[in-house]
Amino acid sequence: MTVTEHLFVYGTLCRGASGALHPLLSTDTEYCCEASLPGKLYEIDGYPGAVNSPSAGTTIQGELYRLHHPQRLFQRLDAYEECSAHFTQPHEYRRSVETVTTNDGDAIKAWMYIYNHALAGRRLIPSGDYRRFKQQDKQT
After folding, report:
1. Helix-strand-coil split of the chain, %, nearest 5
2. Topology of domain 6-139, CATH
3. H-run or E-run covering 3
C-alpha cells in the first residue's frame, strides 16, 4: 500500500460544505491549502464524483490536508465513501493516491476518492469546483 501523509478532498468534505464528516477532518488532519488535479467532476446525487483524467484539459478543485491519524480517519471515510469491505462490489468510490498541485505550484502525492461507477446521465461540473457549482445551483 502506498504511504502518503496527505488527503485531497473536493466536495462535501471541504470546509463550508454540507458533509457530516468534515468535523472529523479538524481532529485527524490539518488543512494545508487549496489544490487541484487534472480530471473531471460530476454531480452524482447531491454530491460530487471525481474522475482522474490527465488529458481532460480540465481540473478538479479542492483542498489538501495533512493526515495525523490516517488509519482512524480512513476507517470512517471509507465507510462514508462506500468503499469499505462492508459494501458490495463494485464500490461507489475507490481510494487512490494521485498527484495534486497546490496553489503554490508544488506537486504532492495525496489520497483521494475516485468515483467508480458509470457516468451515463451524470451532470458534468465544467468548472471542476463543487463549492462554486453548489452556490450557482442555489442562485438558479
Report:
1. 20, 40, 40
2. Hypothetical upf0131 protein ytfp (3.10.490)
3. none
Better-scored residue on pLDDT, 140 or 35: 35
Q: Which long-range contacts (CB under 8 A, 24 or more apart) does 26-30 make?
A: 28/67, 28/68, 28/69, 28/70, 28/72, 28/73, 29/65, 29/66, 29/67, 29/68, 29/73, 30/65, 30/66, 30/68
For the whole model, what pTM was predicted? 0.91
Domain boundaries, the chain: 6-139
Give the pLDDT band of residue 1 (cuts 50, 70, 90): very low
